[in-house]
Design a protein that fits this description.
It comes from Vibrio gazogenes DSM 21264 = NBRC 103151. This is Type-1V conjugative transfer system mating pair stabilisation. The chain is of the alpha+beta class and 143 residues long. It folds into two domains: 85 residues, no CATH class; 53 residues, no CATH class. It is 34% helix and 17% strand. The protein has five helices and four strands; from the N terminus they run ββαββαααα. The strands form two sheets. A two-stranded antiparallel ribbon has the order 1-2. Strands 3-4 form a two-stranded antiparallel ribbon. A hairpin with a 2-residue loop joins strand 1 and strand 2. It is elongated and about 90 Å long. The termini are far apart.
């Protein structure tokens, strides 16, 4: 949660008798971290305590973000704390896309290289390349 601020909900004789706090809640820690760091870059705020503005970053603003200024140390710490930060020495094609992947539901998942080679089996890739080039450049006489 991101604290937006507090305000007086009820006053009696000029004295505040009920104070309220406003927060923005996000679907994940990463979305909160990004929102908290990107909004100031874009000149956006979380609004006022009485009228919080917790919506997403508009798509037309995404290109304006300087991602080199977004610090993800908190997110990386959360991943490490929960055993989700991979050890670089164990990261390989098999662990990312094959039998070690979270997508290996039935135990028989091939890695990306093996799946690609299976899909291309029996296809003349050079002929397909020439065919595509001929469609784009009809006068092309290349190989």
């Amino acid at each position: 949660m991101t604290f937006v601020g507090s305000y007086c909900k009820s006053k009696v004789l000029g004295a505040c008798i009920e104070k309220r706090e406003a927060y923005c809640c996000f679907n994940s820690p990463l979305s909160r971290i990004v929102q908290e760091q990107v909004r100031p870059q874009l000149g956006m705020s979380f609004g006022s305590p009485k009228n919080p503005q917790c919506g997403g970053i508009p798509l037309d603003k995404i290109a304006e973000i300087d991602w080199s200024k977004v610090n993800l140390d908190e997110w990386l710490g959360i991943l490490q704390q929960n055993g989700k930060f991979p050890d670089p020495s164990s990261v390989n094609l098999e662990s990312l896309t094959g039998s070690g992947s979270d997508f290996n539901i039935d135990g028989g998942r091939l890695n990306t290289e093996e799946r690609t080679l299976n899909r291309l089996n029996g296809i003349d890739v050079d002929a397909k390349r020439r065919e595509a080039a001929q469609q784009v450049f009809p006068d092309w006489k290349g190989e």
